[in-house]
Amino acid sequence: MKALKLMAAALAFVGATAQAATNQEIINHVSYNVILATYNDLASQAANLNAAVNTLAANPTEANLAKAQDAWRATRIPWESSEAFLFGPVDSLGIDPLLDTWPLNILDLDSVLKSNRAITTDFVRALGTNLQGFHTIEYLLFGDGKSANTKPASALTAKQFEYLKATTALLAENTAYLANSWSKNYDPENPSAPGYVQVISNPGFDNPFYSSDRAVMEEFVQGMMGILDEVANGKMSDPMGADINSANMALVESPFSWNSLNDFTNNIRSVYSIYTGHYRSTKGPGVKALVERVDAALAARVEGEILNCMQLIQAIRPAGGGDFGQAIFTPDGRARAQKAIDALNALHATMENEVLPTLDM
Amino acid sequence: MKRLLLAIFTLSSIANAQEPTSSSTTTAPTTEIQAPVSAPTTTPIEEEDEDDESREAAVSTSTANGNVEKAYPKFEFTSYGYIVFGQRETFKTVQNLTPITRREMDLAEIAFEGEYILSDSSKIEFEIEIEHGGVGTVVEFDPFEEFGEFEQEIEKGGEVVLPELYYKKTWKKTNTALKVGKFPLFIALGSVQTKPHMYASILASDLEARMIPLNWTETGVQVEQKFSDFTARLGVVSGLNSEFFRTYNWIGGGYQRHFETTNADDLATLASIEWGSVAKGKGFALSYYAGNTTGNRYKVDKLKEDAEVTLWTLMGGYKFGGFGFSGEVIEGTLENSNLVSAANATLGGLAKPKAFAPLGHKARLESLQIYYDFASIRLTPFLKWEHVNTFEEVEGNINKNPRYDVTRNSGGLMWFFDQGAFLKAQYATEVTELEGLPETYQANIAFGFDIDSFK
Question: Which residues does UniProt assign to the signal peptide (chain A) (predicted)?
């Protein structure tokens, strides 16, 4: 009986191996159903945000402000869930800083708001990246974030409405441009260039960027490693400073809306999406399927580490209210944050030392 | 390029017409290195040019003494360098209003300047600078990498640069000179007063670098004509690349020293008229620079409109006994600054300007320094006022940014405690027109040497 069970297990293993996704299937799935789908969601949510802000400007009620704030949070989800794949047009076309430069330059923004210039989309476009994008909208919609993460609709001035309309229209334009660069044309200087999704999903000798499927897989793994490092050692460690006295609220991302921990979690969710191939209701395969072919235990362990990191980040949230910007000023909050940082760095080491080498096996 | 070739051809013709049919200095080259020679003071013209005529006069004397066979080529050498110790206030981020204090030490610069004197009327001059103790950075443009990327290799923090390398021919009968190669532009105090003994502050100008290239040199050809106490200059030089214009230094980043080669699709015209000697602190000059910058961009399709840079400079100084003053006013215009800003905003890779794409249409810099020279003890205390605004006027959708309207006041002293060695101390405060941004200070002490001060 024992022998039979072993044989059945062996057959199941062989069957599973035989049915394992090929590299091309993984690449196709991740490229179209994770990355492209994320950018399409981003463009769609940004258009919704623009509409919500226009409604708020036309009718500045508390309900409409709440809808605009919700729309901002909803747009933030696909963007932060894309940070494991900040390669391709988002980098080469310089779109990342247009959407998400932080910290916001509040001094300069206040200076602009005091000027007599008519604020249009083109005007904001010319101001520079730290006066447009997500965090400018966030500051105007949510207030300064010091003691609360919202403000009354009556606090919004006419000039702020002008600025909000212009900068959300620009955000919608830039996210649509990003989605278009992945779906239709990755190089505006070359109208015959296809969407980047076609480039990355068709590696080969005639592909100018990815000569093999291994090159694409490495792009995926390096992308995951990049955001793990940024969340642990940039977004979380820098504001914490060396000790509680040197903690710096000005370095916290999304401090006005108290959305920092959701941002970080979604950053790691983007790692999860690339790794497993799961995005929203869509299921894999992702890079995990490749790792499974070499080491099934490792493949499962990495998935567990990713989920654990997301839980540890959410656990930083102070019980009495607030977000990451408040947690780093308490000993308990700092301890929880350090635990998450350690887990993220450990996951980064696993990616570098164990997952990356599987590409060569 | 046609203008450049035409100028070279014309000047070569003039040179040939003036040259004697047989040279008096046709000797075999020697490897003799001679110490710098003191400048004779027998003719007014020899006093005019700080670096050139004095040495050429010395060479002429040598020729007259009958040492013709061993006279040329000669090599002359000078050098200067300094180390800066400083403390300054800065801000952690653009949101912070409380300054933090930083202390710094910088092996700021050591420069080696040499001259190969080829004849009594021609020479090759060059200068090698080692900045910040480093060995070099280079930005490379790779059109075959993805979308055409800018890549930078950094071996260390500083640079080794060759800011000057030019051939100079002088025709004494007509007081005409020709420079061909890479030479300093006669456009601002920072590129005219090139050696530490020429100015009392640690840098000739602290704020020039916020508006134009610091120590600006370019490759090209320049004719110089002296008449009485005046010197006129007319040149054609390599232009700027507007791809690297940035908010924080206006056209300064367009100086194409980042690259191994210089794009020369757009050239610039340089003209000036000088009375006396600005370099020596007793003279005034009016200078003009104009050149398009669009053709020198790497990403050729991002900007199709012209982006001509025009600069007017009035600079100079004078000394009455021990009391002296110097200063400059630079007015600059960037054509289609809003279109350049928009084109730069979407550059990728290392060229990405991030928040620093917006550019002013007109920029202005003013400075005034007063000093008293206690010649007997070689001590020169000074006071200096400088102001720069790179958003003096804007075009289209660009907003005036008061953060770049800067006033700087400083005071300090220069003391040559040894014949060729100096100590400079400078304390400066800086304030911008941006409401809420507090005033900051900077204190520096520089130790250095300047071999040219022996002259």
Answer: 1-20
